[in-house]
Design a protein that fits this description.
378 residues; Arc Repressor Mutant, subunit A; Nucleotidyltransferase, domain 5; 3 domains; seven-stranded mixed sheet; 42% helix; 21% strand
Length: 378
């Protein structure tokens, strides 16, 4: 298994070019003097890095945002080039695979969602090739495949190796909860010191901690919540009842709705539509799930005592009217003093965003080397 610890913010552990590029991404528009101050690099080193990154086509000057500099010379900021290169992210879930193309800022350019009966059996090479054909103006630099590998009983290496052979690019892998936490943290990077706990639930469930060490920020080990007890009467494939994953997952919820004759097709969208239209039983199912979600998230918070908790995944976000019950259940159940609780900003895009965030990793590890090998400018 080639999965490694995810460095969300590399800080002083990165090369000068990596540190400069990371700060430009985080700030959007950055002046050279600001880059020197936040990276601790000398102004001469920053200047050399800016020139090299611009020549590689990774950043460009923003003359329109210039301001007065010393001795009357204008100070011209730089920003990322987001329309020239691309990263390819693949997220494999229990029932759905998402293939996405992202820019160097971590934004999703386009994504394709494919339903499957058996994870890992989709022709990823063909799907990625078709996606790239629709964006010929972009040069792909790297790729990543993320999944709940253990929960799906998948080996990450063969999948990544096959995609690497097709693309001729480096392909990394990561656990999907860690990847989702990394994506959330990257886009919330300012003012997030300390420990952030990310609780994920969709068709799999787990949590992870992001620990800000100052010089470097890393995603800690992912812990599965598949068999966390909820007290429900739902029978799990493990032989017990009340396990979290089979109680709250989209697939399990809609399966119960089909068994009860509430919907005719096993699609969570059908149950959502029915609840939104005012069906009391459908709404009761979502509210009941919301209570379990809040209780388990509170239990995770009590075990880990983080500085803040973030709820991620379509089990939390898929039916917004039930979010209030999630929060209320969380607040009733936690034994710790009140603390920050928030919900992902990405909603249904989170899988695509997370996969693209992982694909960005090699670019920020070695931007000049990677472009030199795979994305030579013309």
């Amino acid at each position: 298994m080639r999965q490694q610890t995810i460095a969300v913010i590399r800080g002083s552990h990165g090369s000068p070019a990596s540190r400069v590029l990371e700060q430009v991404r985080g700030r959007g528009v950055a002046f050279r003097e600001e880059l020197a101050a936040v990276t601790g690099l000398s102004q001469a080193t920053v200047a050399r890095s800016v020139v090299a990154l611009a020549e590689a086509g990774l950043i460009r000057e923003r003359a329109s945002a210039a301001r007065e500099g010393r001795l009357g010379r204008p100070s011209i900021p730089v920003s990322l080039v987001t329309d020239r290169h691309a990263c390819i992210g693949v997220h494999i879930g229990r029932w759905v695979t998402t293939v996405a193309l992202g820019d160097l800022a971590g934004r999703v350019v386009e994504s394709v969602v494919l339903r499957h009966e058996q994870p890992g059996r989709i022709d990823l090479g063909g799907v990625v090739a078709a996606l790239l054909d629709r964006h010929l103006e972009r040069t792909p630099l790297s790729a990543a495949v993320v999944a709940p590998w253990r929960s799906l009983a998948l080996d990450s290496d063969p999948l990544a190796d096959r995609l690497e052979t097709v693309l001729g690019l480096p392909v990394g892998t990561a656990d999907h909860v860690a990847a989702i936490a990394a994506a959330e943290f990257i886009h919330r990077r300012h003012g997030t010191g300390g420990i952030t706990c990310y609780v994920y639930a969709r068709d799999t469930a787990g949590f992870t901690l992001v620990i800000d060490k100052g010089a470097q920020t890393e995603v800690a080990t992912v812990t599965s919540l598949a068999h966390y007890p909820t007290g429900s009467a739902v029978r799990c494939w493990c032989g017990r009842t009340g396990c979290f994953e089979v109680t709250v997952s989209d697939h399990a919820l809609v399966a119960r709705a089909v068994d009860n004759g509430l919907v005719d097709v096993p699609r969570i969208e059908a149950l959502r539509d029915k609840a939104a239209a005012g069906d009391r039983e459908a709404r009761r199912m979502f509210d009941e799930r919301a209570r379990w979600l809040g209780e388990v998230a509170a239990g995770v918070r009590d075990m880990t005592a983080p500085d803040r908790t973030v709820l991620v995944g379509q089990a939390f976000t898929g039916f917004p009217p039930a979010l209030g019950e999630v929060v209320a259940s969380f607040e009733r159940s936690t034994s710790l003093p009140p603390g920050p609780l928030s919900v992902t900003r990405f909603g249904d895009d989170i899988q695509a965003v997370a996969a693209c965030a992982m694909a960005m990793g090699p670019v920020y590890d070695d931007p000049l080397g990677l472009v030199g090998r795979w994305g030579a400018t013309g």
